[in-house]
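Progress report, Aim 2. The chain analyzed during this reporting quarter is listed below.
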Amino acid sequence: MTRVGVLALQGDVREHRAMLEHLDVETVPVRTPADLQGLQGIVFPGGESTAIAHLLKSSGLAEALGELINDDFPVFGTCAGLILLSSEILDGRAQQWSFGALDVAVRRNGYGRQIASFEVPVSVSGIGEYEAVFIRAPRIERVSKEVSVLASLDKDGEHPVLIRQGNLWGCSFHPELTTDSRIHDAFVQSL
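Predicted structure tokens for the chain:
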């Protein structure tokens, strides 16, 4: 059975676990480096990126996850998880850090504050139309040529919202807040 961790320090942990378990994936809440043993991949959930980054340091997970990411370990980062994977945070707070693994630049809350949340259909490569939920979502402002854009807000691909670079996936929206498991399934099938 596939075994996937969900970073369980803050954010949409329960929702990601439910989505993965719906796909018959064994999930493990990851709170310490020991929880990483035996995983085939991990999800970095949405939440508050600076809070999660602080908790990663204080839990000892930052170093352990950094080593795994450098060894090409599969990670799916949604919303705040995307920010944590990004190589550049354009409007980060003082002392905010990231793993610098996805060669993209993101802007925190790039689509507006929580009151500006919205849902919109996007066309996802290999999946089709998908109803995407944006809540204080990061805007991807730059992608390198190594990054594949799997979905954009527009037809010309100028505003990417779902990307992949090797074993790293990044998503501006919240696929865990829908009943549609196809994006999680695509990540699981890539493991």
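The domain at 3-189 is CATH 3.40.50.880 (Rossmann fold). The chain has one domain: 3-189. These observations will guide the mutagenesis work planned for the next reporting period.
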